[in-house]
């Protein structure tokens, strides 16, 4: 098992959605929302695949890969579901939104009948989790030698 410093690249990968969300929020203009949604969707799938390759128990690598997501999701639920608008901390609310901001466009397009912003953000978090999990499971299956296409014999 690697030391904590051996996972530095993996922790940096986890922070990319937050950095993107921060820059979009500072500039107030999304950078080509459809293209960035697709790029970050593929990137998040890749991050899930990278965490599945870690030399540690499966549940630990999955939890480590979703650690920042979970912290951000808990902040989001606390700020937007538990607290009312008057007692909400705007700094914590913005901080929780930065992480999943790249996935909001996709969530809004997949569920066009939703008009509540909190529900769309919740769906963006779920889309982010599903994408990571799918990348994680696909690479895990591949590393165990399980393929989707059954072997065909020539007989």
State the main characteristics:
155 residues, mainly alpha, 70% helix
Shape: globular
Which parts are unreliable, with pLDDT below 50 for 5 consecutive residues or more? none
- How many DSSP helices? 7
Average predicted local confidence, pLDDT:
83
Amount of beta strand? under 5%
Alpha-beta content class: mainly alpha
- Total E-strand runs: 0
In percent, how helical is the residue content? over 70%
How do the helices and strands follow one another from N- to C-terminus? HHHHHHH
CA-based gyration radius: 18 Å
What's the end-to-end separation, in Å?
Answer: 45 Å
Specify the biggest β-sheet.
none
Notes on the structure:
The chain is mainly alpha-helical and 155 residues long. The chain has a domain at 12-25 and 33-69 and 97-139. It is built from seven helices and no strands. The chain has helices at 8-27, 33-52, 58-65, 67-82, 90-100, 104-110, 117-143. Helix 1 packs antiparallel against helix 2 (33-52), helix 2 (33-52) runs antiparallel to helix 3 (58-65) and helix 2 (33-52) packs across helix 7 (117-143).
